[in-house]
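Two proteins were folded this term; both appear here.
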Amino acid sequence: MDFKVNYPQVGATRTGDLPSGYRHLVRTADLDGSLAEAADLLMTFGLHERSGLRPEATAARAAPGVEVRLRFAGLLRIPCQVVWAEETPERAGFGYGSMPGHPERGEAAFLLEAVDGRVRFTLRSFSEPGTAAARLGAPVARFLQSRATDQFVHAMRAACAVKRT
């Protein structure tokens, strides 16, 4: 498949062996709820909506090649492309990478796994500033990236708690 991403390590978030030379972020949380329900929210970009983003995707479900423009605060449009996806009874998730025009260069993964009778949600990413503005504002960009990652975890936990009651 011909990906339009702007970094060479396509798919590196799938295994968790993140490439050196980038900033790495990893967050893990155990969830209340079923993997199937959480997977449906995740794979349809519903988690992104619950996290305050407005995804505009070229398909309703995450799959390799799907392009996603994440709208934030009505101003920013952040272009990404899904580079891997999987859905099995034990695992569901995808990774998407930055495309030209994204303030960062790198990849982020969202993964759900059945582990010891629970559902584990993992986010992992590697990135570096992709524009001059992002390099100049690196401390702010890192803070915003960490905050967005934490928001994804909070939104997934809240969605799973709601589904259970």
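Next, the second protein.
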Amino acid sequence: MSTSILMNRTRTQILRFLIRSGPATRTVLASELQTSKSTIRRHLTVLELAGLVHDLDGERFSARPSLIESQLIELAEQYAVQMPPMTAPPLVQD
């Protein structure tokens, strides 16, 4: 199942925080990211629908790192197919 969603800075920050710090409430996320709870709620809804976070108990949310990793791998594979391989110039020339 593909869970492609449009990522943005706030969603990325939410995922990073949850991965590093563990489960958190909307209030904690809003405070840490210096944004409103309604903004956090909106982004958590998108991330939850994509399966990247889940609601633990109606209050705290947790990231799903293994699913996030698989999505990143899938995205990298799609990007690699679309982009020609890059070649770097030699570091030392004879």
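The chain is about 55% helix and 10% strand. The chain has one domain: 9-76. These notes refer to the second protein only.
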